[in-house]
Amino acid sequence: KGENVSTSEVARALLSCEDDDEARVMTEEDSSQYFVEAVVYGVEVPGHPGRAGMATVVLRKPNEDSSWQTSVWRSLQAELPRYAQPLFVRIASEIEKTGTQKYKKNKLQDESFLKCGSDSVYFRDDASEMFVPLDETTRHNVLSGKQRL
């Protein structure tokens, strides 16, 4: 049985994820939060019932692409029940909006985790306790049902 998930609650949790490296020196204009924008939505995964959670985010510091993968996994484990945590995270340089500044979620849902162009997509790997790049092997395992969602 599926659970209802508040996408705005998940987006807030993502936006509050901070760098947990205590040794890092912060300046006043620096922020320890990883993401400046986040939109969360459900995507269909062939061969699986219901929808899987997916988030598209914009990194605060795009050149530090991989530093967030473990910290965000840990933060989401502490903040949200497992069923509410996104399975896929897409890193975008910007998130397209309408003329009234609403995110174009339908477009993102249609693109799913399969048609993201040059954007990087990550998969929540609970065994590794981090988000891992969605490579061809992982993608195949998800689509074939070998990877448990």
From TrEMBL:
One Gene Ontology CC term in the entry: endoplasmic reticulum membrane
Keywords, ordered alphabetically: ATP-binding, Ligase, Nucleotide-binding
Entries under Pfam families matching the protein: AMP-binding_C
Keyword ATP-binding: yes
GO MF annotations in UniProt: ATP binding; long-chain fatty acid transmembrane transporter activity; long-chain fatty acid-CoA ligase activity
UniProt-listed InterPro entries: AMP-bd_C, AMP-bd_C_sf
GO biological process terms, semicolon-separated: long-chain fatty acid import into cell
Domain AMP-binding enzyme C-terminal, chain residue ranges per copy: 35-102
Protein family: Belongs to the ATP-dependent AMP-binding enzyme family.
Protein name: AMP-binding enzyme C-terminal domain-containing protein
